[in-house]
């Protein structure tokens, strides 16, 4: 049976799930050294989930490497290729992130569909926060059991886990000292409020 | 506290998992030929052993995969973990 061609329908423009609670400025107990954590949003990103059909993982990885120069990462890792960042999400499953305008869904779909890959647009489904500052690991550690010490969680390490009891993906970015945390859009406010509560004692800046 | 070694993600807290059930139950090979008693045994009847028990857990906050766990019900010690297709044996 031929595979049905499923085209994404036109969706309304994306809006941040955090508009109503986002209060830029300094909050909490800010010491003389300044805020120990900066929280910012990462707007303007496209995201697709990529799955390999049974037994098609190797062919899919070859296709993406040959066309986009993107080597899909090993379990627990992220990798960048061209303008796309790929995060391991599970067995034969990855999340691909790129700037809007990179035509992420259609480009990847065209490459992987013939070799047994499936992409699902997640651009409206996720909120991504960027956390940076000297106390970022202490703040995150209040909400997750993942060992975030650089020895255990190196640059480009990725963990799908629970943060403040919410399903989240932690992505330690290479060379920047910051962490990107992906949560499902519907949980973004809860996550943000828990994060602010955890960061209050150190002082934090909402960018 | 139980910590489960996910075969995909590594060692994680059991908070990240949800218990699925007894992994020793085998679905009747020929559903049409199975008697109501066979189905009753497969769907409902469970032992409640003290000691090693083979279970399925769902890594619902992690990789979303089903994993097999050999757990001692008396001590909560996790004796072995693996994929559903693996044959688990407790480490000596």
Global geometry of chain B: globular
CATH fold call of chain B: Folate-binding fold
CATH topology of the largest domain in chain A: Gyrase A, domain 2
- Helix and strand content put the structural class of chain B at mainly beta
- SSE order of chain B in H/E notation? EEEHEEE
Q: How many strands in all of chain A?
A: 12
Map the helices and strands:
The complex is a heterodimer of chains A (207) and B (92).
Chain A: E1 25-27, E2 37-41, E3 45-52, H1 57-68, E4 78-81, E5 84-90, E6 93-99, H2 104-112, E7 117-121, E8 126-132, H3 136-141, E9 158-163, E10 166-172, E11 179-184, H4 188-199, E12 204-206
Parallel strand pairs in A: 2-12
Antiparallel strand pairs in A: 1-12, 2-8, 3-6, 3-7, 4-5, 5-6, 8-11, 9-10, 10-11
Chain B: E1 3-6, E2 10-13, E3 18-22, H1 36-43, E4 52-58, E5 66-72, E6 78-82
Antiparallel strand pairs in B: 1-2, 3-4, 4-5, 5-6
What does this structure look like?
The complex is a heterodimer of chains A (207) and B (92). Chain A contains four helices and twelve strands, in the order E-E-E-H-E-E-E-H-E-E-H-E-E-E-H-E. With 207 residues, chain A is of the alpha+beta class. The longest helix of chain A is centred in the N-terminal third of the chain and has 12 residues, at 57-68. Helices cover 19% and strands 33% of the residues of chain A. In chain A, the strands form two sheets. Chain A has a seven-stranded mixed β-sheet with strand order 1-12-2-8-11-10-9. Chain A has a five-stranded antiparallel β-sheet with strand order 4-5-6-3-7. Chain A has helices at 57-68, 104-112, 136-141, 188-199; strands spanning 25-27, 37-41, 45-52, 78-81, 84-90, 93-99, 117-121, 126-132, 158-163, 166-172, 179-184, 204-206. The model of chain A has no long low-confidence stretch (mean pLDDT 94). Chain B is mainly β and 92 residues long. In chain B, strands 3-4-5-6 form a four-stranded antiparallel β-sheet, with no helix packed on it. In chain B, a hairpin with a 5-residue loop joins strand 5 and strand 6. The radius of gyration of chain B is 14 Å and the shape is globular. The interface between A and B is medium-sized, with 12 and 13 residues.
């Amino acid at each position: 049976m031929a595979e049905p061609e499923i085209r994404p329908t036109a969706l309304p423009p994306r809006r941040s799930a955090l508009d109503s609670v986002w209060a830029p400025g300094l909050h909490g107990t800010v010491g003389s050294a300044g805020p120990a954590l900066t929280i910012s949003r990462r707007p303007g990103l496209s995201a697709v989930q990529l799955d390999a059909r049974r037994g098609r993982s190797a062919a899919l990885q070859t296709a993406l490497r040959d066309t986009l120069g993107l080597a899909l990462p090993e379990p627990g890792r992220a990798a960048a290729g061209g303008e796309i960042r790929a995060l391991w999400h599970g067995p034969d499953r990855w999340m691909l992130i790129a700037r809007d305008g990179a035509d992420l869904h259609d480009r990847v779909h065209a490459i992987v569909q013939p070799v047994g890959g499936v992409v699902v647009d997640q651009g409206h489904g996720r909120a991504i926060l960027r956390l940076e500052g000297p106390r970022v690991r202490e703040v995150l550690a209040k909400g997750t059991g993942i060992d975030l010490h650089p020895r255990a969680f190196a640059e480009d390490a990725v963990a799908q886990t629970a943060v403040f009891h919410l399903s989240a993906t932690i992505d330690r970015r290479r060379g920047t000292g910051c962490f990107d945390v992906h949560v499902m859009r519907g949980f973004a406010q809860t996550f943000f409020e828990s994060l602010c509560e955890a960061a209050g004692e150190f002082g934090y800046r909402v960018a | 506290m139980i910590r489960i070694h996910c075969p995909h993600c590594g060692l994680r807290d059991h908070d990240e998992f949800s218990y699925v059930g007894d992994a020793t139950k085998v679905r009747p090979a020929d559903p049409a030929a199975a008697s109501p008693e066979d189905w009753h045994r497969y769907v409902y009847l469970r032992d409640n052993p003290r000691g090693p028990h083979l279970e399925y857990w769902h890594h619902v906050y992690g990789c979303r995969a089903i994993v097999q766990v050999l757990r001692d019900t008396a001590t909560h010690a996790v004796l072995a973990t693996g994929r559903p297709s693996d044959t688990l044996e407790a480490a000596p």
